[in-house]
Amino acid sequence: MCALSHYIERGSNGRVATTGISLIRRHPEGMKPPRSLWVPFPLGRPLGSPDHPDFQRDVLLNALQLLETATEPTIDDYPQDAPISGDDPWACAIMVSPPEPADETEALRDQLVEEIRQLAPWHRESINRRGRTTVGISGATVEQMEDLAVLLADFATGTEPSDGEIDWNHPMPARLKFASDDLRAFYHESATAQPGAAYPTDADLNDWLFNQTLLGTVLRQIVGRMRESEDRRVSGMVIGMIPAGFARAR
Amino acid sequence: MVRMDDLHPDMANNLLNLPLPEIEPQPWITPKPLADSTVAIVTTAGLHPAGDRPFNPGSNEYRLIPGDIDYADLRMSHLSVNFDRSGFQQDINTVFPLERLRELQADGAVGGISRYHYSFMGAQADPTNLESTGEEIGRLLAEDGVDAAFLTPV
Predict the structure, then answer these.
(1) A129: distance to nearest CA of chain B, Å?
(2) pLDDT by residue (tens digit) across A48-97?
(3) Does the ipTM surpass 0.90?
(4) For A140, which residue in chain B has the nearest alpha carbon?
């Protein structure tokens, strides 16, 4: 981000000024972009918290106002933490009751598909509430989540995955990463669709998905196989599969 | 909040050891007043319209996001799994604050909004990888009459 500030201003030949948000203060300290607002928010939430428009607007305005106030490379610190919704810790109300994962491909497919079917009504609720989904980067539609489950179950049990019906956006092994991202988005959107529920943090959702669902167990099995692969494209994709701290079951 | 103690040690180590290249500073730009400025958003969240090509890991490409995009048509194909995606999943403005920018324009705080916004893949092992495409965006923004770019990471 800091490097981009320099490159955009240079490419514009002095016609476009840049300002922006920084999440890691060391980065603007080292690369000295013209204007930067450091914010004390979690990675992935540069504007603070979802569904807090007044707060988001204030963060944005603070960054934009540096265009009028800064006269030399400047880092301002945003003074407030991101607002937290609700006083109680989040707990997912959807009980998916993960079974012991089967070793045999067909059985694991069935188990994972069953878990997805349990979540599907909540995902429909999510789409009704939000009017959208972020699922789809693998090429699969929301209606094809069960096909993604088949791909992951096949790889987890050592079966050569077939192309199936999905119009994939990526070849293997990137396909595994984006199939995993789509299923995680489907699970997250389902788990946060409950009306009135407090918003979970990313750690809450990762703890739920990787310690309380079959998908989490299957993703760990997949990562284990990827690590053993002699194909460096496969072993190298491991970093895009499971967040740091969740590679082992709790 | 992002303070190093709050991050997983592997993640904190990666962020602290990211190379920070010295880039020769440009002549200082004194922008127009904000109320007279046209503003674009540039994000490194790996966003793109649903029908557009997803990013490949390490790509230095950019994607065009039309100013009238429907949020239902935005997707994120970022490589990293080590940042919060739930904020984006619940409210796109947590990452890409186009609706907030429209409100600032309606209030008169911002003069105008660019016809196009731009997205890159973040998590670059070497930030200088974005030099050529970053400069290209600078040219495109200037030719489109944009006065200021608001840059936001994830």
Answers:
(1) 10
(2) 999 999 999 999 999 999 999 999 999 999 999 998 766 677 777 777 77
(3) yes
(4) B50
